UniProtKB/TrEMBL annotation:
GO terms for molecular function: glucose-6-phosphate dehydrogenase activity; NADP binding. The gene is zwf. Pathway: Carbohydrate degradation; pentose phosphate pathway; D-ribulose 5-phosphate from D-glucose 6-phosphate (oxidative stage): step 1/3. This is Glucose-6-phosphate 1-dehydrogenase. Residues 289-308 are annotated as: Disordered. Residues 190-480 form the Glucose-6-phosphate dehydrogenase C-terminal domain. InterPro entries: G6P_DH, G6P_DH_AS, G6P_DH_C, G6P_DH_NAD-bd, NAD(P)-bd_dom_sf. It catalyses: D-glucose 6-phosphate + NADP(+) = 6-phospho-D-glucono-1,5-lactone + NADPH + H(+). Belongs to the glucose-6-phosphate dehydrogenase family. Its EC number is 1.1.1.49. It comes from the Bacteria.
């Protein structure tokens, strides 16, 4: 039986894209599975003047693919209220408090509140200080704040933001979303590493030649040109998702799966990241790129996208090699690649093992691939004897890829993360120390790139990035395992 939690959600940015695409479906699934019952309510707030009825119709529309019946969906949507709200207006917080207290009584919620900040981070400090000052925070239940990315644009701005939020909420009340940490196969990295002796024993620098993380999108910037042109791939993907994955792949075994122990081991990795060498020459450890028109001329280049500077130097692609300066991993590169308008949408990790020690065969490296999305599962590429005479090898692929149906039925990242918030489990959220340390690493790369103002390497849209990304890895005698 699912454990039901009483909760009032107050969603700032309730008319936005994220709320519609991710939050309402996730909350509905939790309701369907019994993690939320009759004692839950949602107040959606945003600038637009919507009625409760209209809001409930919007919620019903967003869950239309998931509903058991019209009646079930209507009952669920009946828990939602809308309050038009300007985040800077103190008077609105008084109205919000009155509505929150009323719903708390009506649904018997007993003071548990989740404040979901699904808006531009420039408002986070204003909202959290008003929540505290206008007494939206309760004494009789839990008060938790969910914060969307981006958490700042460099170390200084993230620290400023964090200080503002900390003036009203403690770190243990904050849940910074990194939706990669909610993905099944990212969570599975630790299970794979620490529950299989075979893998556990070979997860070291003697056996592993290199790690390769690929987070590629085939889409361009779509409607997010304005945001993206100021951000770029390094800030948008590397500071958070990529470095989180690096820490999960290389951290030591935690003493237990508590938030504190897991964070301790992740932090040990982030603290040990070697300063990146970033130059315009061959010794560089990070390269960038920007998508140009595709080879067939049908897909436009980044500079022609809506709300993008036609002379923009913003990177839509990053490749790099990350080194961890610990006895366990020194000299084992973690190659990373991420970008937009690449040949295929995929998130995966390829773990490339060293050739066998005996040198009897001309063996190819064993490769363990962790498929994060859209396929989910593992693949193991091994050498095996070709049938027939001689001692020749051929590769064999052991595959444990989950069926489309299984993937579809398994909980989506937002559903799992919101459930974690209901349960007060912070393991799969980014702690301030992790965020701060990651920004400090990424800032070093940013600073160098910002000083190279003359040009940026281009790659044709729908390829796997600029030639520089191949040179980076080939200079070490390695190759990208994943080729679209
Ligand atoms: P959006 O632009 O679609 O929605 C923003 C919301 O904020 C709207 O509801 C708008 O009415 C409200 N708003 C703006 N100014 C306001 C004001 N002064 N007072 C009251 N309300 C105001 O944005 P989104 O795509 O839903 O994203 C929300 C947050 O989530 C952002 O921080 C974004 O970076 C993050 N995020 C979004 C996605 C995504 O897939 N959409 C993915 C990851 C992170």
């Amino acid at each position: 039986m699912s454990q039901e939690t009483k909760a009032l959600f107050i969603i700032f940015g309730a008319t936005g894209d994220l709320a519609h695409r991710k939050l309402y479906p996730a909350i509905y699934k939790l309701y369907k599975k019994g993690f939320l019952g009759e004692s839950f309510a949602v107040i959606g707030t945003a600038r637009r003047e919507w009625s409760d009825d209209y809001y409930q119709d919007v919620v019903m529309d967003s869950i239309s693919d998931l509903t058991e019946s019209e009646e079930h969906a209507r009952t669920f949507a009946g828990h939602f209220r809308y309050q038009s709200h300007n985040v800077k207006d103190t008077e609105h917080y008084h109205m919000l408090k009155d509505l929150a207290d009323k719903l708390d009584d009506e649904y018997g919620i007993e003071g548990n509140r989740i404040f979901y900040l699904s808006m531009s981070p420039s408002f986070f400090g204003t909202i959290t200080s008003h929540l505290r000052e206008q007494n939206l925070v309760t004494d009789n239940g839990f008060n938790r704040v969910i914060i969307e990315k981006p958490f700042g644009s460099d170390f200084d701005s993230s620290k400023e933001l964090n200080d503002e939020i900390n003036a009203s909420f403690d770190e243990d009340q904050l849940y910074r979303i990194d939706h990669y940490l909610g993905k099944e196969m990212v969570q599975n990295i630790l299970a794979l590493r620490f529950s299989n002796r075979l893998i556990e024993n070979s997860w070291n620098k003697e056996s592993i030649s290199n790690f390769q993380i690929t987070l590629s999108e085939d889409l361009g910037v779509e409607e997010r040109g304005e945001y993206y042109d100021k951000s770029g791939a390094l800030r948008d993907m590397v500071q958070n998702h990529v470095l989180q994955m690096v820490s999960l792949l290389t951290m030591n075994s935690p003493k237990s799966f508590t938030t504190v122990e897991v964070r301790k081991e992740k932090m040990a990795i982030l603290n040990a990241l070697k300063d990146p060498v970033v130059t315009q020459d061959e010794d560089t450890e990070f390269v960038r790129g920007q998508y140009d028109t595709s080879d067939n001329g049908e897909t436009k280049g980044y500079r022609s996208e809506d709300k993008v500077d036609p002379e923009s130097l913003t990177e839509t692609f990053v490749a790099g090699k990350i080194f961890i300066d610990t006895d366990e991993w020194r000299d084992t590169p973690v190659y990373i690649r991420t970008g937009k308008r690449l040949a295929q949408k995929t998130s995966r990790v390829d773990v490339v093992f060293n050739p066998s020690e005996t040198a009897l065969y001309d063996d190819k490296p064993t490769v363990l691939s962790i498929l994060v999305s859209p396929d989910e599962g593992f693949e193991l590429l091994l050498n095996n004897k070709q049938i027939g005479p001689g001692m020749h090898l051929e590769p064999v692929r052991l595959s444990a890829v989950r069926s489309e149906e299984t993937v579809e039925e398994s909980p989506e990242a937002y559903e799992k993360l919101i459930l974690d918030v209901l349960n007060g489990d912070e393991t799969h959220f980014a702690h301030w120390q992790e965020v701060a340390t990651s920004w400090k690493y990424v800032d070093q790369i940013r600073k160098r790139w910002d000083s190279y103002t003359d040009s940026i390497p281009f790659y044709p849209a729908l390829t796997m990035g600029p030639d520089e990304a191949d040179t980076l890895i080939e200079n070490d005698g390695n190759n990208w395992i994943y080729k679209a």
